[in-house]
Design goal:
Layout lengths: L1 E3 L2 H12 L6 H11 L6 E5 L7 E6 L12 E6 L2 H9 L10 E5 L2 H14 L3 E11 L14 E4 L6 H7 L6 H13 L3 E5 L4 E7 L5 E6 L8 H16 L3 E6 L3 H9 L3 E2 L4 E6 L9
Parallel strand pairs: 4-5
Antiparallel strand pairs: 1-2, 2-3, 3-4, 5-13, 6-11, 6-12, 6-13, 7-8, 8-9, 9-10
Helix pairs in contact: 1-2, 3-4, 5-6
Protein name: Glycine N-acyltransferase-like protein
GO molecular function: glycine N-acyltransferase activity
EC number: 2.3.1.-
Length: 282
């Protein structure tokens, strides 16, 4: 196991992962963020270098044992056996903590299931469709309604984000959303008074995240504007435009397809290890 730290190593890894898209999307996005200032304070591990068989992007340093929002990781492998060996390497994972691994490859799930069974660890797996836009510059020009403008979310809006996020509503999710808001790009559609109507965040992996429109302001094209602007800005930064959509969220799937996003084959899985430990502390 080796943690890549030098700019030359990370740039080389970035190039290799780019050739492995779309399966390497979340890891590729994490590496892009690391090589562009590392706002998420992440690191990447490989089983060996430079002829690696597996790579894992994870938070750097100590993380709370009860916070999977903080301890969300992602993996990509070229050799499934190498990925299994990497996860079993001492120091790679804390199996007595709550953590999430995101994977677009079925083997990521298989390895977690096998190791969890052997270690007596519970899993909670959530499935998503992954959508990617091949060229955001071709997206239709967004049109804002009169009295509506593009703006920015403020730190004071974190409670609104936490209340409206289906996976939020607790202290850990609030801390996580505050971190996303403060460190990564976002798009917000506001009314004339500057109050948020619709927004899209970005996470550690370059993923479009927490897209939401307030119920009273839906069916007015606000999310269409937010997604289009977010996609074009991501492209301008050199990032791919992609996101994970809940399999039951038909309206968001339809909107993305209308805007030219393409659904990738297969399923993205968020694999939560030790879900019973994932809770607010005293």
């Amino acid at each position: 196991m080796q943690i890549l730290t030098s700019p030359a190593q990370l740039q080389r890894l970035e190039g290799i992962l780019k050739k492995s898209l779309p399966l390497a999307l979340p890891v590729y996005g994490a590496v892009l963020n690391i090589t562009r200032g590392n706002p998420g304070d992440f690191e990447v591990l490989v089983d060996k270098w430079p002829d690696f068989g597996a790579v894992l992007a994870r938070p750097r340093g100590e993380v709370p044992v009860n916070d999977s929002y903080w301890n969300t990781q992602t993996a990509f492998y070229r050799d499934l056996g190498a990925y299994r060996a990497l996860l079993e390497t001492p120091g790679c994972q804390r199996w007595d903590a709550a953590f999430i691994i995101i994977g677009l490859q079925d083997g990521v799930t298989t390895v977690s299931q096998d190791l969890a069974r052997a270690k007596g660890v519970e899993l909670d797996i959530t499935e998503y469709y992954t959508y990617m836009h091949p060229n955001p510059s071709t997206m239709p020009e967004p049109r804002l309604d009169p009295g509506v403008r593009l703006g920015s979310l403020l730190p004071s809006h974190v409670d609104l984000l936490n209340e409206t996020w289906p996976y939020g509503g607790n202290a850990r999710s609030r801390r996580y959303l505050a971190k996303l808001l403060g460190r990564f790009p976002h798009v917000c559609v506001q009314d004339g008074a500057g109050e948020p109507l619709s927004w899209v965040l970005t996470d550690h992996f370059g993923t479009g995240a927490h897209g939401f429109t307030l119920p009273a302001h839906r069916r007015r094209g606000h999310m269409r504007v937010a997604l289009t602007v977010a996609a074009r800005r991501a492209q301008a930064r050199g990032f791919p435009t992609y996101g994970h959509t809940a399999v039951q969220n038909g309206p968001m799937q339809q909107l993305q397809e209308l805007l030219g996003h393409q659904r990738l084959p297969g399923i993205c899985r968020y694999i939560l290890h030790n879900p019973a430990m994932d809770k607010d502390g005293p």
